[in-house]
Every structure is written in structure tokens, then in C-alpha cells.
Amino acid sequence: MPIPKPTRRELLRLAAAMPALALPAVLRAGSGEPGAGNPSHFTFRQGEVRLTVISDGALTLPVSALGVNADPQEVRAFLAGYFLSPEVNYAHTNHLLIETGAAKVLVDMGSGNRFQDSAGRLSANLAAAGVDAESITHVVITHAHPDHIWGIRDDFDEAILPGAAYFIGGAERAFWMQDGLAARVPPEMQQMVVGARNSLQVEGAEWILLADGDEVAPGVRVIDTPGHTPGHMSVVVDSGGAQMMAVGDALNHAYLNFAHPDWYNGFDMDGDRSVATRHQLLDMAVADRMTVLGYHFPFPGVGHVMREGGAYRFVPALWRWD
User: Fold this and answer.
1) Is the peptide bond before 300 cis (omega within 30 degrees of 0)?
2) Please, which residues have CB within 8 angstroms of residue 64's CB and are 6 or more apart in sequence?
3) Count of structural domains, the chain
4) Which one of 24, 48, 236, 279 is most buried, by most CB atoms within 10 A?
5) CB atoms within 10 A of CB 208
6) Is residue 279 part of a domain?
7) What percent of the chain shows pLDDT beyond 70?
8) pLDDT higher than threshold 80 for residue 252
9) Residue 83: CATH number of its domain
10) Dihedral sign for Cα atoms in the order 270, 5, 109, 114
11) Whole domain around residue 152: which residue ranges?
């Protein structure tokens, strides 16, 4: 298949957002300083499938990377209206563990110790959730950005979960593995390209390449959701007559992406395509009453989508305790 190639303009827009790599991880949640014993995981069921959302921590990113095709003052005013910082975007990182039959499917591997100090907590939080990491049978990577794949390898560049089967979209892998890509992108993007390639070539991981609609495990399939990256994929879980989508970064802000789905972000490699994909996902979620999990939504990041005028609204799921 042809390798999707973002234009130079798109690469420059992405590069402009890269200073976020250097942001100090000092911002705390708007409710104040965190206390001890905050939850790091949340488990629930959908039909016969057991689902657990597991945090990798949080990232601090510049608000200037949000809504880059909109008036910056309008973006800041919108965030302030939702009691969010108009300067720093504090984003959670929500991973999904799917347990169905003998399969344990983990969606994305986090950033490990290679990105921001406030992230890289997936392994510890898996243990806190009572999950033996070595019992994970499948790892699905939605896309090869740092906070989704850099945690795949340890300090010796070996796969942290060598016993798992690894899956990624064929178009996504082909894009990052292009010969000479690091030399063709702006300097600010070179670290991202090198990190993606190192992760995709990690020792101990044999990659199974996916296409739209492929099944990873019974009731677990992937769908193409390009735009944020050329080969971005989302994961759909189907059980008990209900469906849930782990949308990765195809939807990456629980308020802005819904109220203003036509605004795209600096990290979206193809802004126009990310908007088209976003509308498709939102319409699908509304029509089929699907549950959605947003990787960067407020923890645990699970809810539903409703139409609101010409836009949408994210409705957090109402949890029930035993």
C-alpha cells in the first residue's frame, strides 16, 4: 500500500508543537494538590468482557498546540469556561486492558522513562491493579507517538513484554520506518522519529501488521482512524450487544474536540483528515450508542457521545459500585 506522506506544512505545524517535550511536569489538577492513594485503575464489565482503565500518569502540554486553526483567544476563552488552564493543557493517559477468554489485550505501552517525569507509570499501576504484566498476551499500538509507544522497551532496548504478540497498523509502521525520514523532517521532530523507529525495532517484539477491520482477539478489532498520524487506529470491543471504542488520540480532548470538532491540534499530522475522522467517530458513537474511551480524557476517560446542536458533547459514564 502507498505510504501516507504529510505535507511539509503539516510537518512544520507538528514541529511547532514539539517544545512541549521540554515542559516541566509541575502543573497539578485543578482541584488542588494530589493526595495519597488516588486511584490508578478502574475496572468494569461489558457483556462477557472485563475492562480495566490503567493510568500511565499525566502530561503537561502547551495550550498553544490546541485548536491551531482557530483564534487563540477563542481557544483560551473556551478552556477557561470549562475551568481549565488557558496556558497549560494537563492531559491524563488512559490505557485499556481487555480481558476476553484467554486473551489479555493491552492498548498502547505509554512513554516509559523517556518522555515526561509525570508519566511512565503504567507498569507500576498494572501491578497496583493486580495485573501480572507477563500474563498480557496481546499489545495493540494505536500510533507511534512517544506517550503511546516509547514505554515498549526497557533501558537495554529490549521489549518489556517479550511474551506478548505485538500489533500495529501497517500504514503506521510504514510511515515511521521510511528510509531517511529523520533527515526530511524539521529538527524539532527528529527525536520523535528516532524514538518511534527505535521502539518499532525493539528486540523481542515481532510485529503483526493490521488493516481496517482486522480482529486482534475474539470481539476485539481495529478500525482506521487516520489524521493524528498517517496510520492511526482505534480499538473496538464488541460484547453483550454493546460496543466500546478506545479512540487513542483521534479524539484527544474531552471538551474541545466535541464542542468544536473542526478545530485540530498541532500534534495532528494531517489537520483536515483528523477533522474528517473525528466527525466519523462521533457520528458512529452517537448512531450506535457506543461507549468511548479517550486516552487523554479526564481519568478514567470513559463515557458516551450525544449531539448538541451542530456539535457534540462528551457524557462521562455513571459508575455503579457493588
Assistant:
1) yes
2) 17, 72, 266
3) 1
4) 236
5) 13
6) yes
7) 88
8) yes
9) 3.60.15.10
10) negative
11) 40-316
Whether the Cβ atoms of residue 199 and residue 149 lie closer than 8 Å to each other: yes
pLDDT on residue 38: 75
pLDDT tens track for 90-131: 999 999 999 999 999 999 999 999 899 999 999 999 999 999
Q: Which residues contact 59 (CB under 8 A, 6 or more apart)?
A: 20, 25, 90, 91, 93, 115, 116, 118, 119, 147, 296
- Per-residue burial over 144-162, b if 16 or more Cβ lie within 10 Å, else e, is bbbbbbbbbbeeeeebbbe
C-alpha cell at 320: 455503579
User: Residues for the chain: how many in total?
Assistant: 322
**What is the pairing mode between strands 165-169 and 207-210?**
parallel
Pairing of strands 49-62, 215-217: unpaired
Share of the chain above pLDDT 90, in %: 85
Q: What grid cell was written down for 296?
A: 487523554
Residue 35 forms part of a structural domain: no
H-helix or E-strand spanning residue 16: helix 8-16
Give the C-alpha separation, 253 to 314, whole Å. Answer: 10
Please answer whether residues 109 and 139 qualify as being in contact, where contact means their C-beta atoms are separated by less than 8 angstroms. yes
Q: What is the pLDDT at residue 208?
A: 98
In a domain, 194, yes or no: yes
- Amino acid identity for residue 240 in this structure: G
Where b means 16+ CB within 10 Å and e means fewer, 268-286 reads: bbbbebbbebbeebbebbe
User: Is residue 30 in some structural domain?
Assistant: no
pLDDT in tens, 179-233: 999 999 999 899 999 999 999 999 999 999 999 999 999 999 999 999 999 999 9
